[in-house]
Amino acid sequence: MSAKNLDEKHSESVETSDDFNTYEDKQLLRKVDFRLIPILTLLYLLSFLDRTNIGNAKIVGLTTDIHVPPAEYNTALALYFVAYVIFEVPANVDLLKRFDPRLWLPTLTLAWGIVSVVQGLVRNKAGLFGIWFLLGVTEAGLFPGVIYVFSRRHERSWRVAVFFGGAALAGAFGGILAHAIGKMNGVGGRKGWQWIFILEGVLTVAVSLVAYFIVPTWSHKATFLTEPEKKRLLARLGADSDAALIERFEWVYVRQALTDHLVWAYAFLFHGFAFVLYSLSLFMPSIIARLGFQSWQAQFMTVPPNTLAAISIWTTVWLSSRFDKRAPFIIGSAGVAIIGYVILLTTTTPGAQYTGVHFAAAGIYTGNALLLSWPGENVSAQTKRAVAVAMQITIGGIGAIAGVLIYRPSLQAHRFRTPHIISIGYLLFSVLVTLYLWTWMGRENKRRDLVLSQEKGDAEFLASADRQRLGDRDLCYRYVI
Protein backbone atom coordinates (compact mmCIF):
# COMPACT_ATOMS: atom_id res chain seq x y z
CA MET A 1 0.00 0.00 0.00
CA SER A 2 1.45 3.36 -1.01
CA ALA A 3 1.90 6.39 1.19
CA LYS A 4 -0.94 8.04 -0.69
CA ASN A 5 -3.23 5.11 0.06
CA LEU A 6 -2.15 5.16 3.66
CA ASP A 7 -3.08 8.82 3.85
CA GLU A 8 -6.40 8.09 2.18
CA LYS A 9 -7.06 5.30 4.64
CA HIS A 10 -6.26 7.61 7.54
CA SER A 11 -8.44 10.33 6.00
CA GLU A 12 -11.34 7.91 5.65
CA SER A 13 -10.99 7.05 9.33
CA VAL A 14 -11.15 10.72 10.29
CA GLU A 15 -14.16 11.31 8.06
CA THR A 16 -15.90 8.28 9.53
CA SER A 17 -15.34 9.67 13.00
CA ASP A 18 -16.62 13.10 11.93
CA ASP A 19 -19.75 11.52 10.44
CA PHE A 20 -20.81 10.62 13.97
CA ASN A 21 -21.49 14.26 14.84
CA THR A 22 -24.87 14.42 13.15
CA TYR A 23 -27.98 15.86 14.78
CA GLU A 24 -29.26 12.31 15.37
CA ASP A 25 -25.99 11.37 17.08
CA LYS A 26 -26.21 14.38 19.35
CA GLN A 27 -29.75 13.36 20.30
CA LEU A 28 -28.54 9.82 21.01
CA LEU A 29 -25.67 11.13 23.11
CA ARG A 30 -28.02 13.35 25.12
CA LYS A 31 -30.28 10.35 25.72
CA VAL A 32 -27.35 8.26 26.97
CA ASP A 33 -25.90 11.06 29.09
CA PHE A 34 -29.27 11.86 30.65
CA ARG A 35 -29.49 8.24 31.78
CA LEU A 36 -25.82 7.84 32.66
CA ILE A 37 -24.47 11.00 34.21
CA PRO A 38 -27.04 12.15 36.82
CA ILE A 39 -27.22 8.86 38.72
CA LEU A 40 -23.47 8.14 38.56
CA THR A 41 -22.68 11.70 39.63
CA LEU A 42 -25.09 11.32 42.55
CA LEU A 43 -23.41 8.06 43.60
CA TYR A 44 -19.98 9.70 43.57
CA LEU A 45 -21.32 12.75 45.40
CA LEU A 46 -22.56 10.42 48.15
CA SER A 47 -19.24 8.55 48.13
CA PHE A 48 -17.28 11.76 48.64
CA LEU A 49 -19.79 13.00 51.21
CA ASP A 50 -19.50 9.80 53.25
CA ARG A 51 -15.69 9.95 53.25
CA THR A 52 -15.32 13.70 53.95
CA ASN A 53 -18.08 14.16 56.52
CA ILE A 54 -15.62 12.99 59.18
CA GLY A 55 -13.96 16.40 58.88
CA ASN A 56 -17.25 18.04 59.85
CA ALA A 57 -17.90 15.44 62.57
CA LYS A 58 -14.46 16.09 64.06
CA ILE A 59 -15.05 19.77 64.75
CA VAL A 60 -18.37 19.02 66.51
CA GLY A 61 -16.92 16.52 68.96
CA LEU A 62 -16.15 13.15 67.33
CA THR A 63 -12.58 12.73 68.57
CA THR A 64 -13.36 14.13 72.03
CA ASP A 65 -16.38 11.92 72.67
CA ILE A 66 -14.71 8.62 71.72
CA HIS A 67 -11.32 9.61 73.18
CA VAL A 68 -9.27 9.52 69.97
CA PRO A 69 -6.03 11.52 70.27
CA PRO A 70 -5.58 14.02 67.40
CA ALA A 71 -2.64 12.12 65.87
CA GLU A 72 -4.60 8.86 65.82
CA TYR A 73 -7.46 10.58 64.04
CA ASN A 74 -5.01 11.01 61.16
CA THR A 75 -4.21 7.31 61.38
CA ALA A 76 -7.89 6.46 60.98
CA LEU A 77 -8.04 8.54 57.82
CA ALA A 78 -4.92 6.83 56.49
CA LEU A 79 -6.46 3.38 57.06
CA TYR A 80 -9.26 4.30 54.68
CA PHE A 81 -6.77 4.92 51.88
CA VAL A 82 -4.75 1.80 52.75
CA ALA A 83 -7.90 -0.26 52.12
CA TYR A 84 -8.64 1.79 49.00
CA VAL A 85 -5.17 0.98 47.62
CA ILE A 86 -5.36 -2.73 48.42
CA PHE A 87 -8.77 -3.34 46.87
CA GLU A 88 -8.56 -0.94 43.92
CA VAL A 89 -7.09 -3.29 41.32
CA PRO A 90 -9.28 -6.36 42.01
CA ALA A 91 -12.40 -4.18 42.15
CA ASN A 92 -11.68 -2.63 38.75
CA VAL A 93 -9.86 -5.32 36.77
CA ASP A 94 -11.61 -8.47 37.94
CA LEU A 95 -14.96 -7.80 39.59
CA LEU A 96 -16.15 -5.05 37.24
CA LYS A 97 -15.59 -7.32 34.23
CA ARG A 98 -17.39 -10.18 36.02
CA PHE A 99 -20.47 -8.24 37.09
CA ASP A 100 -22.82 -5.96 35.23
CA PRO A 101 -22.35 -2.30 36.31
CA ARG A 102 -26.14 -2.14 36.80
CA LEU A 103 -25.67 -4.54 39.75
CA TRP A 104 -22.08 -3.86 40.77
CA LEU A 105 -22.18 -0.08 41.27
CA PRO A 106 -25.45 0.09 43.29
CA THR A 107 -24.26 -2.85 45.42
CA LEU A 108 -21.07 -1.00 46.26
CA THR A 109 -23.15 2.05 47.17
CA LEU A 110 -25.43 0.00 49.40
CA ALA A 111 -22.41 -1.53 51.16
CA TRP A 112 -20.66 1.74 51.99
CA GLY A 113 -24.00 3.32 52.95
CA ILE A 114 -24.44 0.64 55.61
CA VAL A 115 -20.85 1.15 56.75
CA SER A 116 -21.47 4.89 57.00
CA VAL A 117 -24.50 4.30 59.22
CA VAL A 118 -22.39 2.08 61.47
CA GLN A 119 -19.86 4.91 61.83
CA GLY A 120 -22.45 6.66 63.94
CA LEU A 121 -22.36 3.76 66.40
CA VAL A 122 -18.61 3.63 67.09
CA ARG A 123 -17.62 4.10 70.72
CA ASN A 124 -13.83 3.96 70.75
CA LYS A 125 -10.62 4.26 68.73
CA ALA A 126 -10.62 0.60 67.63
CA GLY A 127 -14.13 0.96 66.25
CA LEU A 128 -13.18 4.08 64.30
CA PHE A 129 -10.09 2.39 62.85
CA GLY A 130 -12.03 -0.71 61.80
CA ILE A 131 -14.98 1.11 60.28
CA TRP A 132 -12.80 3.49 58.26
CA PHE A 133 -10.79 0.59 56.84
CA LEU A 134 -14.08 -1.07 55.87
CA LEU A 135 -15.32 2.15 54.27
CA GLY A 136 -12.21 2.16 52.08
CA VAL A 137 -12.88 -1.45 51.07
CA THR A 138 -16.47 -0.74 50.01
CA GLU A 139 -15.77 2.53 48.16
CA ALA A 140 -12.71 1.26 46.26
CA GLY A 141 -14.55 0.11 43.14
CA LEU A 142 -16.84 3.04 42.38
CA PHE A 143 -14.65 5.69 40.77
CA PRO A 144 -12.59 3.46 38.43
CA GLY A 145 -15.73 1.50 37.58
CA VAL A 146 -17.52 4.65 36.44
CA ILE A 147 -14.48 5.86 34.46
CA TYR A 148 -14.47 2.48 32.70
CA VAL A 149 -18.16 2.83 31.82
CA PHE A 150 -17.54 6.29 30.29
CA SER A 151 -16.41 4.71 27.06
CA ARG A 152 -15.97 7.08 24.09
CA ARG A 153 -12.51 8.70 24.17
CA HIS A 154 -13.22 12.27 23.15
CA GLU A 155 -16.40 12.54 25.20
CA ARG A 156 -14.94 11.04 28.38
CA SER A 157 -13.28 14.16 29.77
CA TRP A 158 -16.53 16.16 29.90
CA ARG A 159 -18.40 13.25 31.49
CA VAL A 160 -15.66 12.83 34.10
CA ALA A 161 -15.75 16.58 34.79
CA VAL A 162 -19.48 16.56 35.47
CA PHE A 163 -19.06 13.39 37.52
CA PHE A 164 -16.08 14.69 39.52
CA GLY A 165 -17.92 17.95 40.08
CA GLY A 166 -20.05 15.86 42.42
CA ALA A 167 -17.05 15.67 44.75
CA ALA A 168 -16.87 19.45 44.97
CA LEU A 169 -20.62 19.72 45.43
CA ALA A 170 -20.40 17.15 48.23
CA GLY A 171 -18.04 19.50 50.04
CA ALA A 172 -20.26 22.47 49.25
CA PHE A 173 -23.54 21.25 50.67
CA GLY A 174 -21.88 18.79 53.08
CA GLY A 175 -20.97 21.66 55.38
CA ILE A 176 -24.54 22.99 55.42
CA LEU A 177 -25.96 19.50 55.92
CA ALA A 178 -23.51 18.73 58.73
CA HIS A 179 -24.34 21.98 60.51
CA ALA A 180 -28.07 21.28 60.31
CA ILE A 181 -27.74 17.67 61.44
CA GLY A 182 -25.33 18.66 64.19
CA LYS A 183 -28.19 20.55 65.85
CA MET A 184 -29.75 17.13 66.58
CA ASN A 185 -27.23 16.75 69.40
CA GLY A 186 -28.98 14.86 72.20
CA VAL A 187 -31.86 13.56 70.07
CA GLY A 188 -32.39 9.88 70.86
CA GLY A 189 -29.50 10.02 73.28
CA ARG A 190 -27.00 10.46 70.45
CA LYS A 191 -24.43 13.13 69.71
CA GLY A 192 -24.69 15.48 66.76
CA TRP A 193 -21.66 13.91 65.02
CA GLN A 194 -23.33 10.48 65.29
CA TRP A 195 -26.42 11.77 63.51
CA ILE A 196 -24.20 13.18 60.72
CA PHE A 197 -22.93 9.68 59.93
CA ILE A 198 -26.26 7.93 60.46
CA LEU A 199 -28.50 10.20 58.42
CA GLU A 200 -26.05 10.66 55.56
CA GLY A 201 -25.53 6.89 55.53
CA VAL A 202 -29.28 6.28 55.42
CA LEU A 203 -29.51 8.69 52.49
CA THR A 204 -26.84 6.68 50.65
CA VAL A 205 -28.66 3.40 51.31
CA ALA A 206 -31.93 4.83 50.00
CA VAL A 207 -30.30 6.13 46.81
CA SER A 208 -28.52 2.80 46.25
CA LEU A 209 -31.84 0.94 46.24
CA VAL A 210 -33.23 3.31 43.62
CA ALA A 211 -29.97 3.02 41.64
CA TYR A 212 -30.63 -0.67 40.94
CA PHE A 213 -33.41 0.48 38.62
CA ILE A 214 -31.57 3.45 37.06
CA VAL A 215 -27.87 2.64 36.58
CA PRO A 216 -27.44 1.54 32.95
CA THR A 217 -25.82 -1.67 31.80
CA TRP A 218 -23.30 -2.12 28.98
CA SER A 219 -24.24 -0.41 25.72
CA HIS A 220 -25.16 -3.59 23.84
CA LYS A 221 -27.58 -4.63 26.61
CA ALA A 222 -29.17 -1.26 27.40
CA THR A 223 -32.95 -1.63 27.53
CA PHE A 224 -33.59 2.14 27.36
CA LEU A 225 -32.19 2.17 23.81
CA THR A 226 -33.87 0.85 20.69
CA GLU A 227 -32.04 -1.72 18.56
CA PRO A 228 -31.07 0.88 15.91
CA GLU A 229 -29.80 3.17 18.70
CA LYS A 230 -27.69 0.35 20.17
CA LYS A 231 -26.16 -0.35 16.77
CA ARG A 232 -25.46 3.32 16.21
CA LEU A 233 -23.92 3.72 19.67
CA LEU A 234 -21.67 0.70 19.18
CA ALA A 235 -20.64 2.04 15.76
CA ARG A 236 -19.73 5.39 17.34
CA LEU A 237 -17.68 3.63 20.01
CA GLY A 238 -15.99 1.43 17.43
CA ALA A 239 -15.01 4.41 15.26
CA ASP A 240 -13.52 6.27 18.21
CA SER A 241 -11.92 3.60 20.40
CA ASP A 242 -11.95 -0.05 21.45
CA ALA A 243 -14.98 0.43 23.70
CA ALA A 244 -17.38 -1.45 21.42
CA LEU A 245 -15.22 -4.59 21.36
CA ILE A 246 -15.94 -7.63 23.50
CA GLU A 247 -12.45 -8.29 24.79
CA ARG A 248 -11.43 -11.45 26.61
CA PHE A 249 -9.18 -11.03 29.63
CA GLU A 250 -5.57 -11.82 28.76
CA TRP A 251 -2.52 -11.35 30.95
CA VAL A 252 -0.66 -9.79 28.03
CA TYR A 253 -2.71 -6.62 28.48
CA VAL A 254 -1.86 -6.53 32.18
CA ARG A 255 1.84 -6.82 31.32
CA GLN A 256 1.45 -4.05 28.75
CA ALA A 257 0.06 -1.74 31.43
CA LEU A 258 2.70 -2.62 34.01
CA THR A 259 5.56 -2.03 31.56
CA ASP A 260 4.22 1.19 29.99
CA HIS A 261 6.03 4.28 31.27
CA LEU A 262 3.01 6.45 30.38
CA VAL A 263 0.72 4.39 32.61
CA TRP A 264 3.12 4.91 35.49
CA ALA A 265 3.32 8.62 34.71
CA TYR A 266 -0.49 8.97 34.86
CA ALA A 267 -0.36 7.20 38.23
CA PHE A 268 2.37 9.46 39.63
CA LEU A 269 0.53 12.51 38.32
CA PHE A 270 -2.50 11.59 40.42
CA HIS A 271 -0.19 10.73 43.32
CA GLY A 272 0.84 14.37 43.47
CA PHE A 273 -2.67 15.77 43.06
CA ALA A 274 -4.28 13.21 45.42
CA PHE A 275 -2.02 14.43 48.23
CA VAL A 276 -3.52 17.91 48.02
CA LEU A 277 -7.05 16.78 47.08
CA TYR A 278 -7.65 14.68 50.16
CA SER A 279 -5.64 16.73 52.61
CA LEU A 280 -7.64 19.81 51.59
CA SER A 281 -11.07 18.14 51.38
CA LEU A 282 -10.70 16.26 54.68
CA PHE A 283 -9.08 19.10 56.62
CA MET A 284 -10.78 22.14 55.09
CA PRO A 285 -13.11 22.64 58.11
CA SER A 286 -10.09 22.40 60.45
CA ILE A 287 -7.97 24.73 58.29
CA ILE A 288 -10.75 27.33 58.23
CA ALA A 289 -11.44 26.92 61.95
CA ARG A 290 -7.75 27.60 62.71
CA LEU A 291 -8.05 30.92 60.88
CA GLY A 292 -9.99 32.06 63.93
CA PHE A 293 -13.57 31.06 63.09
CA GLN A 294 -15.90 29.07 65.31
CA SER A 295 -16.80 25.50 64.36
CA TRP A 296 -20.29 26.39 63.10
CA GLN A 297 -18.83 29.19 61.00
CA ALA A 298 -16.20 26.82 59.58
CA GLN A 299 -18.96 24.43 58.51
CA PHE A 300 -20.69 27.14 56.49
CA MET A 301 -17.45 28.60 55.16
CA THR A 302 -16.56 25.37 53.35
CA VAL A 303 -19.47 26.04 50.96
CA PRO A 304 -18.05 28.94 48.84
CA PRO A 305 -14.63 27.36 48.03
CA ASN A 306 -16.23 24.04 47.12
CA THR A 307 -18.86 25.77 44.98
CA LEU A 308 -16.13 27.72 43.20
CA ALA A 309 -14.28 24.43 42.64
CA ALA A 310 -17.32 22.88 40.93
CA ILE A 311 -17.73 25.92 38.66
CA SER A 312 -14.00 25.90 37.88
CA ILE A 313 -14.12 22.20 36.95
CA TRP A 314 -16.98 22.59 34.49
CA THR A 315 -15.62 25.77 32.90
CA THR A 316 -12.03 24.56 32.51
CA VAL A 317 -12.92 21.10 31.22
CA TRP A 318 -15.29 22.67 28.68
CA LEU A 319 -12.35 24.78 27.43
CA SER A 320 -10.06 21.76 27.51
CA SER A 321 -12.51 19.75 25.39
CA ARG A 322 -13.02 22.64 22.99
CA PHE A 323 -9.26 22.95 22.36
CA ASP A 324 -8.74 19.17 22.70
CA LYS A 325 -5.85 19.75 25.11
CA ARG A 326 -5.28 18.40 28.62
CA ALA A 327 -1.68 19.08 29.70
CA PRO A 328 -1.68 22.92 29.61
CA PHE A 329 -4.90 23.05 31.61
CA ILE A 330 -3.58 20.60 34.21
CA ILE A 331 -0.44 22.72 34.60
CA GLY A 332 -2.57 25.86 34.82
CA SER A 333 -4.75 24.27 37.51
CA ALA A 334 -1.65 23.34 39.52
CA GLY A 335 -0.48 26.94 39.19
CA VAL A 336 -3.76 28.29 40.57
CA ALA A 337 -3.54 25.87 43.51
CA ILE A 338 0.05 26.90 44.22
CA ILE A 339 -1.07 30.55 44.28
CA GLY A 340 -3.66 29.55 46.89
CA TYR A 341 -1.05 27.92 49.13
CA VAL A 342 1.32 30.87 48.72
CA ILE A 343 -1.48 33.18 49.88
CA LEU A 344 -2.06 30.90 52.89
CA LEU A 345 1.65 31.01 53.71
CA THR A 346 2.35 34.71 53.21
CA THR A 347 -0.74 36.46 54.58
CA THR A 348 -1.83 36.88 58.18
CA THR A 349 -5.42 38.11 58.09
CA PRO A 350 -8.27 35.54 58.12
CA GLY A 351 -9.92 37.14 55.08
CA ALA A 352 -6.81 36.90 52.93
CA GLN A 353 -6.10 33.35 54.00
CA TYR A 354 -9.69 32.35 53.30
CA THR A 355 -9.15 33.70 49.78
CA GLY A 356 -6.16 31.36 49.54
CA VAL A 357 -8.43 28.42 50.37
CA HIS A 358 -10.62 29.38 47.38
CA PHE A 359 -7.66 29.40 44.98
CA ALA A 360 -6.36 26.10 46.33
CA ALA A 361 -9.74 24.39 46.07
CA ALA A 362 -10.40 25.63 42.52
CA GLY A 363 -6.99 24.53 41.24
CA ILE A 364 -6.87 21.19 43.02
CA TYR A 365 -10.35 19.96 42.09
CA THR A 366 -10.00 21.14 38.48
CA GLY A 367 -6.61 19.50 37.99
CA ASN A 368 -7.92 16.22 39.38
CA ALA A 369 -10.98 16.28 37.11
CA LEU A 370 -8.73 16.68 34.07
CA LEU A 371 -6.05 14.14 34.93
CA LEU A 372 -8.44 11.39 36.00
CA SER A 373 -9.89 11.16 32.49
CA TRP A 374 -6.50 11.29 30.76
CA PRO A 375 -5.48 7.59 30.90
CA GLY A 376 -9.01 6.63 29.89
CA GLU A 377 -8.54 8.70 26.73
CA ASN A 378 -5.03 7.49 25.94
CA VAL A 379 -4.78 3.84 27.00
CA SER A 380 -6.00 0.93 24.87
CA ALA A 381 -6.96 -2.03 24.90
CA GLN A 382 -9.78 -2.45 27.42
CA THR A 383 -7.97 -4.60 29.99
CA LYS A 384 -4.87 -2.46 29.77
CA ARG A 385 -7.03 0.62 30.31
CA ALA A 386 -8.74 -0.98 33.31
CA VAL A 387 -5.35 -1.78 34.86
CA ALA A 388 -4.08 1.73 34.05
CA VAL A 389 -7.05 3.41 35.74
CA ALA A 390 -6.74 1.10 38.76
CA MET A 391 -3.00 1.82 39.00
CA GLN A 392 -3.67 5.54 38.80
CA ILE A 393 -6.16 5.45 41.67
CA THR A 394 -4.00 3.03 43.69
CA ILE A 395 -0.79 5.06 43.50
CA GLY A 396 -2.85 8.21 43.95
CA GLY A 397 -4.19 6.63 47.12
CA ILE A 398 -0.65 6.39 48.45
CA GLY A 399 -0.37 10.14 47.94
CA ALA A 400 -3.62 10.56 49.86
CA ILE A 401 -2.20 8.51 52.75
CA ALA A 402 0.80 10.84 52.88
CA GLY A 403 -1.49 13.87 52.79
CA VAL A 404 -3.69 12.87 55.71
CA LEU A 405 -0.66 11.87 57.80
CA ILE A 406 1.24 15.12 57.15
CA TYR A 407 -1.69 17.36 58.15
CA ARG A 408 -1.28 16.17 61.73
CA PRO A 409 -1.37 18.08 65.04
CA SER A 410 2.41 18.18 65.46
CA LEU A 411 2.72 20.08 62.14
CA GLN A 412 -0.19 22.49 62.48
CA ALA A 413 1.86 25.35 63.90
CA HIS A 414 1.53 28.69 62.08
CA ARG A 415 -1.75 27.55 60.48
CA PHE A 416 -0.31 24.35 58.92
CA ARG A 417 2.70 26.16 57.44
CA THR A 418 4.85 23.03 56.97
CA PRO A 419 2.06 20.89 55.40
CA HIS A 420 1.20 23.75 53.03
CA ILE A 421 4.84 23.96 51.88
CA ILE A 422 4.89 20.19 51.30
CA SER A 423 1.66 20.54 49.31
CA ILE A 424 3.35 23.04 46.98
CA GLY A 425 6.14 20.50 46.50
CA TYR A 426 3.65 17.82 45.49
CA LEU A 427 2.00 20.18 43.02
CA LEU A 428 5.35 21.07 41.46
CA PHE A 429 6.07 17.35 41.13
CA SER A 430 2.75 16.95 39.30
CA VAL A 431 3.68 19.78 36.94
CA LEU A 432 6.94 18.00 36.05
CA VAL A 433 5.10 14.73 35.38
CA THR A 434 2.59 16.55 33.19
CA LEU A 435 5.40 18.15 31.20
CA TYR A 436 6.94 14.70 30.69
CA LEU A 437 3.65 13.25 29.40
CA TRP A 438 3.00 16.29 27.20
CA THR A 439 6.46 16.21 25.65
CA TRP A 440 6.69 12.46 25.09
CA MET A 441 3.20 11.98 23.66
CA GLY A 442 3.54 15.04 21.42
CA ARG A 443 6.80 13.72 19.98
CA GLU A 444 5.32 10.24 19.56
CA ASN A 445 2.31 11.59 17.67
CA LYS A 446 4.67 13.43 15.30
CA ARG A 447 6.86 10.32 14.89
CA ARG A 448 3.85 8.20 13.94
CA ASP A 449 2.69 10.82 11.45
CA LEU A 450 6.15 10.78 9.90
CA VAL A 451 6.35 6.98 9.72
CA LEU A 452 2.97 6.75 8.02
CA SER A 453 3.82 9.51 5.54
CA GLN A 454 7.15 7.87 4.62
CA GLU A 455 5.77 4.34 4.25
CA LYS A 456 6.62 3.23 0.72
CA GLY A 457 5.07 0.15 -0.79
CA ASP A 458 5.20 -2.90 1.37
CA ALA A 459 3.19 -1.82 4.39
CA GLU A 460 -0.32 -3.06 4.96
CA PHE A 461 -2.81 -2.00 7.57
CA LEU A 462 -3.07 -4.55 10.34
CA ALA A 463 -6.08 -6.75 10.83
CA SER A 464 -8.47 -5.49 13.50
CA ALA A 465 -7.46 -8.28 15.92
CA ASP A 466 -3.79 -7.29 15.62
CA ARG A 467 -4.62 -3.63 16.07
CA GLN A 468 -6.69 -4.49 19.13
CA ARG A 469 -3.68 -6.29 20.62
CA LEU A 470 -1.40 -3.34 19.84
CA GLY A 471 -3.90 -0.88 21.34
CA ASP A 472 -2.35 2.53 21.89
CA ARG A 473 0.94 1.31 20.34
CA ASP A 474 -0.70 1.12 16.91
CA LEU A 475 0.84 3.61 14.46
CA CYS A 476 -2.63 4.96 13.64
CA TYR A 477 -3.38 5.71 17.30
CA ARG A 478 -2.99 9.34 18.38
CA TYR A 479 -2.63 10.50 21.97
CA VAL A 480 -4.76 13.29 23.40
CA ILE A 481 -2.27 15.73 24.87
TrEMBL record:
Q: Where is the Major facilitator superfamily (MFS) profile domain?
A: 36-447
Q: Which InterPro entries match?
A: MFS, MFS_dom, MFS_trans_sf
Q: Cellular component GO terms, alphabetically? A: membrane
Name by which UniProt lists this protein: Major facilitator superfamily (MFS) profile domain-containing protein
Span-the-membrane segments of this chain are 32-49, 77-96, 103-122, 128-150, 162-181, 193-215, 263-288, 300-320, 327-344, 356-374, 386-407, 419-438
Q: Which PROSITE patterns match?
A: MFS
Instruction: Supply the SUPFAM superfamilies for this chain.
Output: MFS general substrate transporter (SSF103473)
Q: Which UniProt keywords apply?
A: Membrane, Transmembrane, Transmembrane helix, Transport
Instruction: Kindly give the PANTHER family that the UniProt entry links to this protein.
Output: PERMEASE-RELATED, TRANSPORTER, PUTATIVE (AFU_ORTHOLOGUE AFUA_6G11320)-RELATED
Spell out the Gene3D superfamilies in the cross-references. Answer: MFS general substrate transporter like domains
Q: Give any GO molecular function from the UniProt entry.
A: transmembrane transporter activity
Membrane topology field: Multi-pass membrane protein
Where does this protein reside within or beyond the cell? Answer: Membrane
Entry keyword Transmembrane helix: yes
